[in-house]
């Protein structure tokens, strides 16, 4: 009996220690490349330049884990004009990590301008805008993009000046893009290509990046291993976040992240605490899960608002992203079931030694995130 108890607690401890202590997903560096008719291009980037200047490892989920954390925090407190000077000094190093390759010939962009927001909530990354300019080699038929793995992930949006058609690619650290063809205009991707890309984006938004969403889904899972309660909760959550994801992206509703993110953290606390207090599915829980699903949908919309959706296949991309999110959530449930449900689900002590300790851990994490997001703590 003691050995079983120790094993259950060991799993719970391992799970929470292995979770990265982050808030919501950190948006990758976003690059908008505008191809001009005069044979030049501009690169407008929106990214966390403080993390780059401080040489924060992009693999870290918490900047406080970096040996350069103190430098990072000091940069975040600089006035816009002071940090803009730091950016300009850093440009030569940064540009070395950007590879614009036109038919095998490298084009090195030059610095044009930097715009830094005022110092705000220090618990939220400050995204600066940096503009670079370069030359398209005469006769080039296509170009590729590559971003140094030291700088992390990148999202690249490419379009011709005055043309609404845009191609986008989402790249892992150091990944070489597929060629962007050059011509009179960009050829749009096929519907199947768009669907595959956004399914993958939705899935990775849950696994491994959406830790707060993962905890909410685990809270739903821990409530009961019986199919009916699980199915009712997952269905309510799915329908709700699908509604607000679509409405947010179409511009019908909008709430600032300063409201959405703390409430998402509160939703994690709620489902975990109710798991502790009751094992019987109450009618109100479905409505509460639905309400919190509406909030999570607005959270999901954040990354797509930043990256944008292809205008020609907006609905396809939206549906595909949502499918990816669902696949990610089902993967979380499947992993949890294989990890604890299969081995311990039928044990008489499952609730006392798995559900309650696990829910306590989830509630504690959600409570900390609530405080962190409301008061701007690091």
Give an overview of the whole structure.
This protein is 53% helix and 15% strand. The strands form 2 sheets. Strands 5-6-2-1-8-9 form a 6-stranded mixed beta sheet, covered by helices on one side. A 4-stranded antiparallel beta sheet has the order 4-3-7-10, with no helix packed on it. The protein has 11 helices and 10 strands. The longest helix is centred in the C-terminal third of the chain and has 31 residues. A hairpin with a 2-residue loop joins strand 3 and strand 4. With 378 residues, it is α+β, with helices and mostly antiparallel strands. It folds into 2 domains: 159 residues, no CATH class; 175 residues, no CATH class.
Name a few traits of the molecule.
alpha+beta; 15% strand; single chain; 378 residues; 53% helix; 2 domains; disordered N terminus; 4-stranded antiparallel sheet; globular
Briefly characterize the structure.
By secondary structure, the chain is α+β, with helices and mostly antiparallel strands. The chain has helices at 2-18, 49-53, 69-76, 80-95, 191-206, 211-223, 227-249, 257-277, 283-307, 314-344, 350-375; strands spanning 29-35, 40-47, 98-102, 105-107, 110-115, 128-135, 142-147, 154-160, 166-171, 180-181.
Walk me through the topology.
Blueprint: H1 2-18, E1 29-35, E2 40-47, H2 49-53, H3 69-76, H4 80-95, E3 98-102, E4 105-107, E5 110-115, E6 128-135, E7 142-147, E8 154-160, E9 166-171, E10 180-181, H5 191-206, H6 211-223, H7 227-249, H8 257-277, H9 283-307, H10 314-344, H11 350-375
Parallel strand pairs: 1-8
Antiparallel strand pairs: 1-2, 2-6, 3-4, 3-7, 5-6, 7-10, 8-9
Helix pairs in contact: 1-11, 5-10, 6-7, 6-8, 6-10, 6-11, 7-9, 8-9, 8-11
């Amino acid at each position: 009996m003691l050995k079983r108890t120790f094993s259950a607690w060991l799993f719970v401890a391992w799970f929470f220690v292995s979770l990265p202590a982050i808030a919501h997903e950190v948006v990758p560096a976003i690059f908008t490349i505008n191809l001009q008719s005069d044979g030049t291009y501009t690169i407008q980037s929106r990214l966390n330049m403080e993390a780059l200047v401080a040489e924060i490892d992009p693999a870290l989920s918490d900047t406080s884990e970096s040996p350069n954390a103190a430098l990072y925090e000091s940069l975040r407190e600089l006035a816009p004009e002071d940090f803009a000077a730091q950016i300009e000094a850093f440009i030569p190093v940064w540009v070395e990590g950007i590879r614009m390759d036109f038919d095998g010939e490298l084009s090195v962009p030059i610095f044009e301008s930097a715009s830094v927001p005022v110092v705000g909530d220090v618990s939220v990354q400050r995204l600066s805008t940096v503009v670079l300019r370069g030359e398209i080699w005469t006769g080039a038929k296509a170009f590729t993009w590559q971003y140094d793995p030291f700088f992390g992930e990148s999202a690249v949006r490419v379009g011709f000046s005055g043309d609404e058609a845009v191609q986008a690619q989402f790249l892992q650290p150091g990944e070489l893009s597929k060629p962007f063809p050059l011509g009179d205009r960009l050829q749009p991707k096929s519907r199947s290509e768009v669907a595959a890309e956004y399914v993958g984006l939705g899935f990775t938004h849950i696994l491994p990046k959406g830790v707060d969403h993962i905890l909410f889904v685990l809270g739903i899972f821990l409530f009961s291993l019986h199919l009916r309660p699980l199915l009712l909760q997952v269905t309510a959550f799915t329908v709700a976040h699908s509604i607000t994801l679509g409405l947010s992206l179409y511009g019908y509703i909008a709430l600032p992240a300063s409201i959405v993110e703390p409430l998402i953290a509160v939703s994690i606390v709620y489902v975990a605490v109710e798991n502790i207090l009751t094992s019987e599915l109450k009618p109100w829980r479905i409505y509460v899960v639905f309400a919190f699903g509406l909030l999570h949908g607005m959270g999901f919309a954040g990354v797509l608002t930043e990256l944008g959706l292809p205008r020609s296949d907006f609905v396809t991309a939206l549906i595909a992203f949502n499918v990816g999110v669902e696949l990610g959530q089902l993967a979380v449930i499947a992993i949890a079931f294989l990890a604890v449900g299969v081995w311990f689900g039928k044990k008489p002590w499952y609730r006392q030694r798995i559900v309650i300790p696990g829910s306590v851990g989830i509630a504690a994490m959600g409570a900390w995130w609530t405080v962190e997001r409301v008061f701007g703590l690091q």
